[in-house]
Amino acid sequence: MKADPAPQPRILALASGSGSNLQALIDASRERGFPGQIVAVGCNRPGAFALERAAQANLQTFVVDHTRYDSREDFDATLMAEILRHHPDLIVLAGFMRILTTDFVRAFRGKLLNVHPSLLPRYTGLNTHQRALDAGDTTHGVSIHFVTEELDGGPVIAQAEVSVASNDDAESLAEKVQAKEHVLYPIVVRWFCEGRIQLGANCVLFDGDPLTTPMRLPDN
Ligand code: GAR
Hints:
Helix content: 25-40%
Shape: globular
Oligomer: single chain
Number of helices: 6
Structural class: alpha/beta
Bound molecules: glycinamide ribonucleotide
């Protein structure tokens, strides 16, 4: 008798806005041979377009509206309970614009990925594109990292660069960076589902070895 195939890693995505990264993940997960399955999408904004995208893809959704909670701790506790109902192996922050509490981050240590629109450690936090322009940077980009207690400070798995043109503004730069995000995030999620990347003591382990510099998607 043929053995049942091993169950695929269960991916849960969290989003707050347009959900273009979520869409890229949905599209990738539909490709033949993708090693994981998206089991649910959570959102902190009831009207977010990300929810629409998830519904279009027939994915289960849930909303935990942060405006209905008095404290970050209460919000995160409810969010955590909702997430646990889906037994995820991986939680993908796909434009999820909430700062997470230490308890939340610790509970999912090694299972939480984030996409951040800068070449970390440059420009943690918000307004990354304008800050890169203000600094006169000639390159900018995106980082995918494990989430740890330090905001946007967890070990970086992979980065992709874009060139900053003299006529770029924050909007055009955001577009260029997002195009890279949509390619890079599914690649990293695939690596995770294949068991190739893990969070080590304070580094990324890639195929079991510490990554000394983030993996790079070539600029083109
Ligand atoms: C993305 O560009 C992502 O890098 C950024 O929010 C955008 C969400 O877009 N995330 C952060 O700034 C996290 N600190 P999307 O909803 O279309 O994926």
